[in-house]
Protein backbone atom coordinates (compact mmCIF):
# COMPACT_ATOMS: atom_id res chain seq x y z
CA UNK A 1 0.00 0.00 0.00
CA UNK A 2 1.49 3.35 -1.04
CA UNK A 3 1.79 6.25 1.38
CA UNK A 4 -0.70 8.25 -0.69
CA UNK A 5 -3.29 5.46 -0.57
CA UNK A 6 -2.64 4.95 3.14
CA UNK A 7 -3.16 8.65 3.85
CA UNK A 8 -6.32 8.83 1.74
CA UNK A 9 -7.86 5.79 3.45
CA UNK A 10 -7.11 7.25 6.88
CA UNK A 11 -8.67 10.56 5.83
CA UNK A 12 -11.94 8.98 4.63
CA UNK A 13 -12.19 6.54 7.54
CA UNK A 14 -11.38 9.38 9.91
CA UNK A 15 -14.15 11.50 8.39
CA UNK A 16 -16.60 8.65 8.90
CA UNK A 17 -15.47 8.23 12.49
CA UNK A 18 -15.63 12.00 13.10
CA UNK A 19 -19.24 12.34 11.93
CA UNK A 20 -20.64 11.26 15.28
CA UNK A 21 -18.31 13.43 17.41
CA UNK A 22 -19.06 16.45 15.20
CA UNK A 23 -22.77 15.81 15.70
CA UNK A 24 -22.19 15.74 19.44
CA UNK A 25 -19.76 18.64 19.88
CA UNK A 26 -20.92 21.23 17.39
CA UNK A 27 -24.25 22.03 19.03
CA UNK A 28 -23.02 22.07 22.65
CA UNK A 29 -22.46 25.87 22.75
CA UNK A 30 -26.08 26.29 21.65
CA UNK A 31 -27.60 24.68 24.76
CA UNK A 32 -28.72 28.00 26.34
CA UNK A 33 -30.09 29.28 22.99
CA UNK A 34 -31.94 26.01 22.31
CA UNK A 35 -33.42 26.07 25.82
CA UNK A 36 -34.62 29.64 25.29
CA UNK A 37 -36.12 29.05 21.83
CA UNK A 38 -37.82 25.77 22.76
CA UNK A 39 -39.00 27.07 26.15
CA UNK A 40 -37.18 24.52 28.28
CA UNK A 41 -34.07 24.20 30.48
CA UNK A 42 -30.44 23.40 29.58
CA UNK A 43 -30.73 20.19 31.64
CA UNK A 44 -33.62 19.03 29.42
CA UNK A 45 -31.75 20.06 26.30
CA UNK A 46 -28.94 17.75 27.43
CA UNK A 47 -31.45 14.89 27.13
CA UNK A 48 -31.14 15.36 23.37
CA UNK A 49 -27.50 14.40 23.87
CA UNK A 50 -28.56 11.33 25.84
CA UNK A 51 -31.00 10.52 23.05
CA UNK A 52 -28.13 10.66 20.56
CA UNK A 53 -26.14 8.19 22.64
CA UNK A 54 -29.14 5.85 22.84
CA UNK A 55 -29.55 5.97 19.06
CA UNK A 56 -25.90 5.10 18.52
CA UNK A 57 -26.06 2.21 21.00
CA UNK A 58 -29.09 0.64 19.31
CA UNK A 59 -27.96 1.44 15.78
CA UNK A 60 -24.54 -0.15 16.12
CA UNK A 61 -26.07 -3.49 17.06
CA UNK A 62 -28.27 -3.19 13.97
CA UNK A 63 -25.50 -2.29 11.54
CA UNK A 64 -22.99 -4.90 12.74
CA UNK A 65 -24.77 -7.91 11.18
CA UNK A 66 -25.77 -5.86 8.12
CA UNK A 67 -22.14 -4.93 7.45
CA UNK A 68 -21.09 -8.57 7.70
CA UNK A 69 -23.98 -9.83 5.55
CA UNK A 70 -24.15 -7.22 2.76
CA UNK A 71 -20.60 -5.84 2.80
CA UNK A 72 -19.51 -2.50 4.21
CA UNK A 73 -20.70 0.05 1.64
CA UNK A 74 -24.43 -0.57 1.04
CA UNK A 75 -25.46 -0.40 4.74
CA UNK A 76 -23.18 2.63 5.03
CA UNK A 77 -25.03 4.39 2.22
CA UNK A 78 -28.37 3.82 3.98
CA UNK A 79 -27.02 5.10 7.29
CA UNK A 80 -25.63 8.26 5.75
CA UNK A 81 -28.95 9.02 3.99
CA UNK A 82 -30.79 8.60 7.32
CA UNK A 83 -28.26 10.92 8.96
CA UNK A 84 -28.69 13.62 6.31
CA UNK A 85 -32.49 13.62 6.56
CA UNK A 86 -32.49 13.62 10.37
CA UNK A 87 -29.94 16.46 10.55
CA UNK A 88 -32.24 18.56 8.37
CA UNK A 89 -35.13 17.60 10.67
CA UNK A 90 -33.21 18.88 13.71
CA UNK A 91 -32.81 22.27 12.04
CA UNK A 92 -36.57 22.69 11.62
CA UNK A 93 -37.88 21.24 14.89
CA UNK A 94 -40.04 23.47 17.09
CA UNK A 95 -40.11 21.48 20.36
CA UNK A 96 -37.63 19.80 22.70
CA UNK A 97 -39.45 16.51 22.16
CA UNK A 98 -39.01 16.84 18.40
CA UNK A 99 -35.33 17.66 18.80
CA UNK A 100 -34.77 14.61 21.01
CA UNK A 101 -36.57 12.36 18.50
CA UNK A 102 -34.60 13.72 15.54
CA UNK A 103 -31.35 13.34 17.46
CA UNK A 104 -32.10 9.66 18.09
CA UNK A 105 -32.71 9.11 14.36
CA UNK A 106 -29.65 11.18 13.47
CA UNK A 107 -27.56 8.96 15.74
CA UNK A 108 -28.89 5.77 14.19
CA UNK A 109 -27.72 7.09 10.83
CA UNK A 110 -24.32 8.28 12.03
CA UNK A 111 -23.43 5.05 13.81
CA UNK A 112 -23.33 3.24 10.44
CA UNK A 113 -20.29 5.39 9.71
CA UNK A 114 -18.75 4.61 13.11
CA UNK A 115 -19.21 0.83 12.86
CA UNK A 116 -18.13 0.64 9.21
CA UNK A 117 -14.96 2.68 9.80
CA UNK A 118 -13.83 0.48 12.70
CA UNK A 119 -14.60 -2.75 10.80
CA UNK A 120 -12.78 -1.47 7.71
CA UNK A 121 -9.65 -0.84 9.76
CA UNK A 122 -9.66 -4.57 10.47
CA UNK A 123 -10.40 -5.29 6.77
CA UNK A 124 -7.84 -2.99 5.13
CA UNK A 125 -4.88 -3.14 7.52
CA UNK A 126 -2.95 -6.02 9.16
CA UNK A 127 -3.59 -6.73 12.84
CA UNK A 128 -0.11 -5.51 13.78
CA UNK A 129 -0.97 -2.03 12.43
CA UNK A 130 -4.43 -1.72 13.99
CA UNK A 131 -3.43 0.18 17.14
CA UNK A 132 -1.39 2.62 15.04
CA UNK A 133 -4.29 3.13 12.61
CA UNK A 134 -6.73 3.69 15.46
CA UNK A 135 -4.38 6.33 16.88
CA UNK A 136 -4.21 8.04 13.47
CA UNK A 137 -8.00 7.95 13.25
CA UNK A 138 -8.11 9.61 16.64
CA UNK A 139 -5.96 12.39 15.20
CA UNK A 140 -8.65 13.02 12.56
CA UNK A 141 -11.45 12.52 15.08
CA UNK A 142 -9.60 14.73 17.52
CA UNK A 143 -10.01 17.67 15.19
CA UNK A 144 -13.77 17.56 15.82
CA UNK A 145 -13.70 18.66 19.49
CA UNK A 146 -11.18 21.35 18.51
CA UNK A 147 -13.11 22.66 15.52
CA UNK A 148 -16.75 21.72 16.12
CA UNK A 149 -17.59 23.57 19.36
CA UNK A 150 -15.55 26.61 18.34
CA UNK A 151 -17.32 26.85 14.98
CA UNK A 152 -20.60 25.97 16.68
CA UNK A 153 -20.19 28.83 19.14
CA UNK A 154 -19.61 31.40 16.41
CA UNK A 155 -22.35 29.99 14.18
CA UNK A 156 -24.84 29.97 17.04
CA UNK A 157 -23.96 33.54 18.01
CA UNK A 158 -24.22 34.80 14.41
CA UNK A 159 -26.92 32.67 12.76
CA UNK A 160 -28.69 30.75 15.52
CA UNK A 161 -28.43 27.13 16.65
CA UNK A 162 -30.48 25.86 13.69
CA UNK A 163 -27.61 26.75 11.35
CA UNK A 164 -25.43 24.19 13.13
CA UNK A 165 -27.68 21.38 11.92
CA UNK A 166 -27.73 22.83 8.41
CA UNK A 167 -23.92 22.55 8.40
CA UNK A 168 -24.11 18.96 9.70
CA UNK A 169 -26.49 18.14 6.85
CA UNK A 170 -23.92 19.46 4.38
CA UNK A 171 -21.18 17.40 6.04
CA UNK A 172 -23.25 14.26 5.67
CA UNK A 173 -23.70 14.93 1.95
CA UNK A 174 -19.96 15.54 1.46
CA UNK A 175 -18.98 12.33 3.28
CA UNK A 176 -21.55 10.32 1.32
CA UNK A 177 -19.96 11.59 -1.89
CA UNK A 178 -16.43 10.66 -0.74
CA UNK A 179 -17.51 7.17 0.29
CA UNK A 180 -19.38 6.56 -2.96
CA UNK A 181 -16.55 7.59 -5.28
CA UNK A 182 -13.29 6.92 -3.43
CA UNK A 183 -13.64 4.37 -0.60
CA UNK A 184 -12.84 0.83 -1.82
CA UNK A 185 -15.07 -2.14 -1.02
CA UNK A 186 -13.06 -3.91 1.67
CA UNK A 187 -15.19 -6.95 2.42
CA UNK A 188 -17.13 -9.42 0.31
CA UNK A 189 -20.77 -9.95 1.38
CA UNK A 190 -21.17 -13.16 3.38
CA UNK A 191 -24.47 -14.84 2.55
CA UNK A 192 -23.89 -17.44 5.26
CA UNK A 193 -24.59 -14.80 7.91
CA UNK A 194 -28.26 -14.86 8.85
CA UNK A 195 -30.24 -11.76 9.74
CA UNK A 196 -32.76 -13.68 11.83
CA UNK A 197 -32.77 -12.65 15.50
CA UNK A 198 -31.53 -15.97 16.92
CA UNK A 199 -28.42 -16.34 14.69
CA UNK A 200 -27.60 -12.65 15.20
CA UNK A 201 -27.77 -13.02 18.96
CA UNK A 202 -25.69 -16.20 18.78
CA UNK A 203 -23.12 -14.35 16.68
CA UNK A 204 -22.92 -11.55 19.24
CA UNK A 205 -22.68 -14.14 22.00
CA UNK A 206 -19.78 -15.84 20.20
CA UNK A 207 -17.97 -12.51 20.17
CA UNK A 208 -18.90 -11.61 23.73
CA UNK A 209 -17.72 -14.90 25.24
CA UNK A 210 -14.16 -14.36 24.00
CA UNK A 211 -12.26 -13.40 27.22
CA UNK A 212 -9.93 -10.94 25.48
CA UNK A 213 -12.91 -9.17 23.90
CA UNK A 214 -15.06 -8.80 27.00
CA UNK A 215 -12.13 -7.78 29.17
CA UNK A 216 -10.87 -4.97 26.97
CA UNK A 217 -14.22 -3.98 25.42
CA UNK A 218 -15.84 -3.44 28.82
CA UNK A 219 -12.71 -1.77 30.17
CA UNK A 220 -12.64 0.58 27.18
CA UNK A 221 -16.37 1.29 27.30
CA UNK A 222 -16.45 2.10 31.00
CA UNK A 223 -13.24 4.16 30.96
CA UNK A 224 -14.38 6.02 27.84
CA UNK A 225 -17.71 6.89 29.46
CA UNK A 226 -15.79 9.40 31.55
CA UNK A 227 -15.47 11.40 28.32
CA UNK A 228 -19.27 11.37 28.00
CA UNK A 229 -19.59 12.68 31.56
CA UNK A 230 -17.31 15.55 30.55
CA UNK A 231 -19.16 16.25 27.27
CA UNK A 232 -22.59 16.14 28.97
CA UNK A 233 -21.60 18.24 31.95
CA UNK A 234 -19.23 20.76 30.37
CA UNK A 235 -21.87 23.15 28.93
CA UNK A 236 -23.42 23.52 32.37
CA UNK A 237 -20.08 23.67 34.20
CA UNK A 238 -18.47 26.28 31.96
CA UNK A 239 -21.47 28.38 30.89
CA UNK A 240 -23.68 28.18 34.00
CA UNK A 241 -21.18 27.63 36.85
CA UNK A 242 -18.21 29.65 35.54
CA UNK A 243 -20.36 31.96 33.33
CA UNK A 244 -18.42 31.78 30.06
CA UNK A 245 -20.20 32.63 26.78
CA UNK A 246 -20.68 30.36 23.74
CA UNK A 247 -17.49 31.50 22.00
CA UNK A 248 -15.27 31.11 25.07
CA UNK A 249 -16.78 27.71 25.78
CA UNK A 250 -15.94 26.61 22.25
CA UNK A 251 -12.32 27.63 22.67
CA UNK A 252 -12.07 25.91 26.08
CA UNK A 253 -13.42 22.71 24.57
CA UNK A 254 -10.91 22.98 21.73
CA UNK A 255 -7.93 23.55 24.03
CA UNK A 256 -8.86 20.62 26.28
CA UNK A 257 -9.09 18.39 23.23
CA UNK A 258 -5.37 18.91 22.62
CA UNK A 259 -4.71 16.56 25.56
CA UNK A 260 -6.85 13.80 24.09
CA UNK A 261 -5.37 14.20 20.60
CA UNK A 262 -1.79 14.62 21.73
CA UNK A 263 -1.74 11.55 23.97
CA UNK A 264 -3.29 9.39 21.24
CA UNK A 265 -0.40 10.37 18.96
CA UNK A 266 2.25 9.85 21.64
CA UNK A 267 0.69 6.41 21.92
CA UNK A 268 1.98 5.51 18.44
CA UNK A 269 5.52 6.18 19.68
CA UNK A 270 5.04 4.16 22.87
CA UNK A 271 3.84 1.18 20.85
CA UNK A 272 7.34 0.84 19.39
CA UNK A 273 8.66 -0.27 22.78
CA UNK A 274 5.63 -1.28 24.84
CA UNK A 275 2.69 -3.62 24.39
CA UNK A 276 -0.85 -2.27 24.19
CA UNK A 277 -1.94 -4.08 27.35
CA UNK A 278 0.89 -2.43 29.31
CA UNK A 279 -0.12 1.04 28.12
CA UNK A 280 -3.79 0.44 28.96
CA UNK A 281 -2.94 -0.66 32.50
CA UNK A 282 -0.64 2.25 33.35
CA UNK A 283 -2.86 4.89 31.73
CA UNK A 284 -5.96 3.60 33.51
CA UNK A 285 -4.23 3.79 36.89
CA UNK A 286 -3.37 7.41 36.09
CA UNK A 287 -6.97 8.06 35.07
CA UNK A 288 -8.23 6.73 38.40
CA UNK A 289 -5.77 8.81 40.44
CA UNK A 290 -6.56 12.08 38.66
CA UNK A 291 -10.34 11.49 38.73
CA UNK A 292 -10.46 10.68 42.46
CA UNK A 293 -8.28 13.71 43.24
CA UNK A 294 -10.59 15.85 41.09
CA UNK A 295 -13.58 14.53 43.05
CA UNK A 296 -11.95 15.28 46.41
CA UNK A 297 -11.21 18.85 45.34
CA UNK A 298 -14.78 19.32 44.09
CA UNK A 299 -16.34 17.94 47.26
CA UNK A 300 -14.33 20.42 49.32
CA UNK A 301 -15.48 23.34 47.19
CA UNK A 302 -11.98 24.22 45.98
CA UNK A 303 -12.71 24.19 42.26
CA UNK A 304 -11.87 27.23 40.17
CA UNK A 305 -11.93 27.54 36.40
CA UNK A 306 -8.16 27.04 36.18
CA UNK A 307 -8.12 23.99 38.47
CA UNK A 308 -11.01 22.45 36.56
CA UNK A 309 -9.20 22.91 33.25
CA UNK A 310 -6.02 21.27 34.58
CA UNK A 311 -7.84 18.20 35.89
CA UNK A 312 -9.88 17.79 32.72
CA UNK A 313 -6.81 18.12 30.52
CA UNK A 314 -4.91 15.35 32.33
CA UNK A 315 -8.01 13.11 32.45
CA UNK A 316 -8.48 13.42 28.68
CA UNK A 317 -4.80 12.62 28.14
CA UNK A 318 -5.29 9.32 29.97
CA UNK A 319 -8.28 8.43 27.77
CA UNK A 320 -6.15 9.12 24.69
CA UNK A 321 -3.87 6.28 25.81
CA UNK A 322 -6.47 3.77 27.01
CA UNK A 323 -8.99 3.95 24.17
CA UNK A 324 -6.99 3.07 21.00
CA UNK A 325 -5.09 0.27 22.71
CA UNK A 326 -8.14 -1.28 24.35
CA UNK A 327 -10.02 -1.07 21.03
CA UNK A 328 -7.21 -2.83 19.15
CA UNK A 329 -6.96 -5.55 21.81
CA UNK A 330 -10.73 -6.08 21.70
CA UNK A 331 -10.78 -6.64 17.91
CA UNK A 332 -7.50 -8.55 17.57
CA UNK A 333 -9.03 -12.06 17.89
CA UNK A 334 -11.55 -11.50 15.07
CA UNK A 335 -11.59 -11.49 11.27
CA UNK A 336 -14.87 -12.96 10.02
CA UNK A 337 -16.88 -11.37 12.84
CA UNK A 338 -15.07 -8.03 12.81
CA UNK A 339 -18.25 -6.13 11.92
CA UNK A 340 -20.21 -7.67 14.77
CA UNK A 341 -17.28 -7.25 17.14
CA UNK A 342 -16.85 -3.57 16.30
CA UNK A 343 -20.62 -3.01 16.55
CA UNK A 344 -20.77 -4.68 19.94
CA UNK A 345 -17.76 -2.73 21.16
CA UNK A 346 -19.30 0.53 19.96
CA UNK A 347 -22.68 -0.33 21.49
CA UNK A 348 -21.01 -0.99 24.83
CA UNK A 349 -19.22 2.36 24.67
CA UNK A 350 -22.35 4.29 23.78
CA UNK A 351 -24.47 2.35 26.26
CA UNK A 352 -22.12 3.28 29.10
CA UNK A 353 -21.95 6.81 27.76
CA UNK A 354 -25.75 7.03 27.77
CA UNK A 355 -25.96 5.98 31.40
CA UNK A 356 -23.34 8.55 32.40
CA UNK A 357 -24.98 11.36 30.41
CA UNK A 358 -28.43 10.60 31.85
CA UNK A 359 -26.89 10.63 35.33
CA UNK A 360 -25.33 14.05 34.71
CA UNK A 361 -28.63 15.37 33.25
CA UNK A 362 -30.59 14.35 36.34
CA UNK A 363 -29.22 17.28 38.35
CA UNK A 364 -31.14 20.51 37.70
CA UNK A 365 -28.93 22.76 39.84
CA UNK A 366 -25.78 23.99 38.05
CA UNK A 367 -22.81 22.17 39.60
CA UNK A 368 -19.56 20.49 38.59
CA UNK A 369 -20.12 17.58 40.98
CA UNK A 370 -22.28 15.37 38.69
CA UNK A 371 -19.67 15.55 35.94
CA UNK A 372 -16.77 14.84 38.29
CA UNK A 373 -18.59 11.97 40.03
CA UNK A 374 -19.28 10.38 36.64
CA UNK A 375 -15.61 10.66 35.68
CA UNK A 376 -14.34 9.23 38.98
CA UNK A 377 -16.83 6.37 38.99
CA UNK A 378 -16.15 5.35 35.40
CA UNK A 379 -12.38 5.27 35.82
CA UNK A 380 -12.52 3.29 39.08
CA UNK A 381 -14.93 0.65 37.75
CA UNK A 382 -12.93 0.30 34.51
CA UNK A 383 -9.74 -0.48 36.44
CA UNK A 384 -11.58 -3.08 38.51
CA UNK A 385 -12.97 -4.73 35.35
CA UNK A 386 -9.49 -4.83 33.80
CA UNK A 387 -7.90 -6.41 36.87
CA UNK A 388 -10.58 -9.10 37.14
CA UNK A 389 -10.91 -9.71 33.38
CA UNK A 390 -7.21 -10.22 32.74
CA UNK A 391 -7.31 -13.32 34.95
CA UNK A 392 -9.74 -15.01 32.53
CA UNK A 393 -7.51 -14.59 29.45
CA UNK A 394 -5.58 -17.81 28.87
CA UNK A 395 -4.01 -16.92 25.48
CA UNK A 396 -3.81 -13.24 24.65
CA UNK A 397 -3.57 -12.11 21.03
CA UNK A 398 -1.14 -9.22 20.89
CA UNK A 399 -1.87 -6.49 18.34
CA UNK A 400 1.70 -6.73 17.04
CA UNK A 401 1.34 -10.37 16.06
CA UNK A 402 1.08 -11.48 12.44
CA UNK A 403 -2.51 -11.39 11.25
CA UNK A 404 -2.75 -15.04 10.18
CA UNK A 405 -1.31 -16.26 13.46
CA UNK A 406 -3.62 -14.03 15.48
CA UNK A 407 -7.00 -15.09 14.13
CA UNK A 408 -9.12 -17.17 16.46
CA UNK A 409 -12.37 -16.92 14.44
From TrEMBL:
GO terms, molecular function: xenobiotic transmembrane transporter activity
Coiled-coil parts of chain: none
Cellular component GO terms held in the UniProt record: plasma membrane
Keyword terms: Cell membrane, Membrane, Transmembrane, Transmembrane helix, Transport
Subcellular location: Cell membrane
Pfam families: MFS_1
Keyword Transmembrane helix belongs to the record: yes
Keyword Acetylation part of the UniProt annotation: no
Membrane topology: Multi-pass membrane protein
Domain Major facilitator superfamily (MFS) profile: 9-392
Transmembrane segments: 45-64, 76-94, 100-121, 133-155, 161-183, 213-231, 251-271, 278-296, 302-322, 343-363, 369-388
Family recorded in the similarity comment: Belongs to the major facilitator superfamily. Bcr/CmlA family.
PANTHER family found in the cross-reference section: MAJOR FACILITATOR SUPERFAMILY, POLYAMINE TRANSPORTER 2-RELATED
Protein name (Swiss-Prot/TrEMBL): Multidrug effflux MFS transporter
Amino acid sequence: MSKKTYFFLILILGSLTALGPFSIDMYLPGFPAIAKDLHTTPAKVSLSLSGFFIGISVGQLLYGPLLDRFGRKNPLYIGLIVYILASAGCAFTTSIEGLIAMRVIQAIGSCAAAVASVAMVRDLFPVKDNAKVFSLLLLVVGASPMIAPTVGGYVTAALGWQAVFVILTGMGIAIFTAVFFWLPASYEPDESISLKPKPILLNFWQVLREPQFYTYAFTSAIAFSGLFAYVSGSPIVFMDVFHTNEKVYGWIFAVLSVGFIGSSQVNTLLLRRHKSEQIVYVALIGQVIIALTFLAVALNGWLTLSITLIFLFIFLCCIGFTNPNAAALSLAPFAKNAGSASALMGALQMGMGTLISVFVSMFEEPSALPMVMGMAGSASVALLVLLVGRRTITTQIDVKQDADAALLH
